[in-house]
Amino acid sequence: MLNFDDKKFEEKTLAREEIFSGKIFHVVKDVVSLHDGQESFRELVFHNGGTAIAPVHNNKMILVGQYRKALEKFIFEIPAGKLEKGEEKDPKAAVLRELEEETGYLAQDLTEITAFYGTPGFSSEKTYVYFSSNLTKVEHPKPADDGEFLEQIEVTLSEAKKMIELEQIADAKTIMAIWYWEMQYLKKELENNA
Length: 194
Hints:
Elements: E1 12-21, E2 25-33, E3 39-47, E4 50-57, E5 60-68, E6 73-77, E7 80-82, H1 91-103, E8 105-107, E9 111-117, E10 126-132, E11 135-137, E12 151-155, H2 157-165, H3 172-193
Parallel strand pairs: 4-10
Antiparallel strand pairs: 1-2, 2-3, 4-5, 4-7, 5-6, 5-12, 8-11, 9-10
């Protein structure tokens, strides 16, 4: 697999139509040439990316709940936010800002869990996910973004897993963060029993 020719299936852009340019993302429709000579089209969303953090305090994960219009429902997630222009090079600074705005905590250390593309078939959005269990409460935290209404809760690992079953937690970044937290928990148990 390491010697795979990644250019073999490259799709050359023949034409691009601008569909929408907004505050958060940009949408285009491309006409592409396929490797077999045929033409097709691709509808693409370009996004600066996002950042998220799994904050654990006193053996409980801090989650924020909010209504997600695209889903037409209220769900709980780890604190997260979009990367502003220029922040792609420093997602750690962005995640620390989001953590403070959404929870009132600062992280004293960060471990990168992963960085992933959620839907690479049509979107360039890359999300950086971090973990921290060394948190400090801020006396006067930065305010939340305008129009952002959040409900903050703290849950145990078993409560978080139950919330996944009930689809109260339904987004990929939060589910990945909870799996990571569970792996860290199991790792500690193995070390303690060794």
